[in-house]
Amino acid sequence: MNWFKKKQSNDTYRSMWGNNGFIEINNQTDLNSFLTIQSSNKKEDTRIHKKPIEIWEKLINEKPNIDCINLNAKIEIVKQRIKVLEENTREIPKDEYEVIGYLLARKKYNKYLQLFQWPITTEEKIQDLCKTWSVELVKIEQWYTLIPDEGIQEIKKYREACNKIRPEKPLFRLIIPVKSYEEKKERRRDPILLASSPFGRWDYILGAWDKEVAIVDELIYNYK
Q: Contact 204/116 with Cβ under 8 angstroms?
């Protein structure tokens, strides 16, 4: 679709930008000037450029002290809280349901502890990394083609471990490099793979790679 159709010189393009008013653009010269001003107003990205695999260790956080004491009593307290809230408000107590899931999972924590030996990170660590270094956090559904074969196997291994704990799917996310507008036309590489923990509000770092996704690239993207 052509957003900038050629018009007669007496036509005006109106943009709903700035102070809830209109900016008149009467010709191509005005349009070029407008776009130049907008480009110059963009905040410069001063983050440090590094590959994710070079900085992934900055994500590592100390393993949390997981409280597995009196779990049944705690579960009953939260269940009672959910009951009262649902009977007396119009809101679904999502945080309470999330806590119930973690508490139920912790009943199996000691039995399956050895299946979860990946390093741990937190949302705060992730956000700090993205503020300091030129990387961004994305959903796996958007960039799953970046995951190498080793990453696919790691996802399979993690999901099998989680299935022993609870039925819900873990949330998988990627940290990938941020590149310029021109470079975004190229497929971005080198992800850090994160997975939500079944036991609490933190993530496991499943891996970081610096490798081509050879088979998928050759057959799908390079037309071989």
A: yes
